[in-house]
């Protein structure tokens, strides 16, 4: 079994962990996914026009149909692209960031010879609400050129996690120059739901000590909105290592869930041999892979640890947990014998 993305090869065996595997659950029905465009947010930008003017739109989420809706009303006082003819042929384009390719672009019709276009169109995305809330909406206005030499006229970017969803009214927003996040955004790879628990040595009984050494319990529940690599979906499984140990004793994996971009694993792994002080230097790495006969494709992962960059005094690149991952691990360390629930975005490793 080989993988298209390299695995961690750091070897350090001061504290080896012994795994034991828990129960599995039944499969979940396949969920269809929206195909996306692989074009860049700024593809075809040949213009050098300064952003100006405003755009009027409203946002809404249809709970019944699980659909995100962008109501594009109109624009005012846009920049003039063709100064000789005094004209612009504008249209509005939207992406969900950071993964602009995953959900694809949506765009309105082109309105010719106007800097005050009226659209009254709705751009729609089929997406789960909890996935939507970790994204940003990038809405940009463009001049359409017959030869494909489109010109950027301005944009607005909105963090959907902080958006007031009770506000369904049309509002005006000033168009701004390009944002760095739209250009350099990291792909959204899905969201993992899991729980973790630390059981300290001897905490479950006096004699004989139960457990004789500390245990870390990892309950991988499900993953939402995985990247769809084939029309039939994705055949995914989860790998787990407790770094710095990358031996076969540390390696565990779930079963493969076929043709499902929202797989339910319900898989529990227990690692023993943990002392409380090990929690500062160890890192639980969970990675999701698409299974194929000849090679597996990396889809995304998380690393649970303190993110200090050090393990037992040695500098390592895998101690790079995000703020969310660090907070999740710290909460486990502070609440012995309690399950800590989390919902963490998958990322490149």
TrEMBL record:
Residues 1-27 are annotated as: Disordered. Keywords: Cell membrane, Exocytosis, Membrane, Repeat. GO terms for cellular component: exocytic vesicle; plasma membrane. SMART domains: C2. Its main location: membrane. The keyword Membrane applies. GO terms for biological process: exocytosis. InterPro entries: C2_dom, C2_domain_sf, SYTL1-5_C2B. It holds the Pfam family C2. CDD domains: C2A_SLP-1_2, C2B_SLP_1-2-3-4. It is found in: Cell membrane. Residues 51-173, 188-319 form the C2 domain. It comes from the Eukaryota. One of its GO terms (molecular function) is neurexin family protein binding. This is Synaptotagmin-like protein 2. It comes from Sitta europaea.
């Amino acid at each position: 079994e080989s993988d298209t993305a390299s695995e961690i090869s750091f070897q350090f065996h001061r504290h080896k962990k012994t795994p034991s595997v828990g129960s599995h659950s039944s499969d979940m029905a396949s969920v269809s996914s929206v195909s996306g465009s692989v074009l860049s947010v700024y593809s075809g930008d040949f213009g050098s026009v300064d952003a100006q003017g405003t755009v009027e739109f409203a946002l809404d989420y249809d709970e019944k149909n699980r659909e995100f809706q962008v109501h594009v009303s109109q624009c005012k006082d846009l920049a003039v692209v063709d100064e000789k003819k005094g004209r612009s042929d504008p249209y509005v384009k939207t992406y969900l960031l950071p993964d602009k390719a995953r959900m694809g672009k949506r765009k309105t019709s082109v309105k010719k010879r106007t800097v005050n276009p009226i659209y009254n169109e709705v751009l729609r995305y089929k997406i789960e609400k909890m996935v939507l809330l970790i994204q940003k909406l990038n809405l940009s206005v463009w001049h359409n050129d017959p030869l494909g030499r489109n010109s950027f006229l301005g944009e607005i970017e909105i963090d959907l996690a902080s958006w007031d969803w009770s506000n369904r009214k049309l509002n005006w927003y000033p168009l701004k120059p390009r944002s760095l996040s739209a250009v350099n955004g990291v792909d959204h790879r899905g969201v993992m739901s899991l729980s973790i628990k630390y059981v300290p040595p001897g905490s479950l009984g006096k004699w004989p000590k139960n457990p004789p050494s500390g245990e870390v319990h990892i309950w991988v529940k499900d993953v939402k909105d995985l990247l769809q690599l084939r029309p039939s979906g994705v055949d995914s499984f989860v790998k787990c290592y407790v770094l710095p140990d990358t031996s076969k004793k540390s390696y565990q994996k779930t079963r493969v869930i076929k043709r499902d971009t929202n797989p339910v694993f319900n898989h529990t792994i227990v690692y023993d041999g943990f002392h409380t002080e090990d929690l500062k230097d160890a890192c639980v790495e969970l990675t999701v892979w698409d299974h194929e006969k000849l090679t597996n494709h990396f889809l995304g992962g998380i690393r649970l640890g303190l993110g200090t960059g050090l393990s037992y005094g040695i500098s390592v690149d895998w101690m790079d947990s995000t703020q969310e991952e660090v907070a999740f691990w710290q909460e486990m360390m502070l609440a012995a014998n309690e399950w800590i629930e989390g919902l963490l975005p998958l990322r490149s490793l």
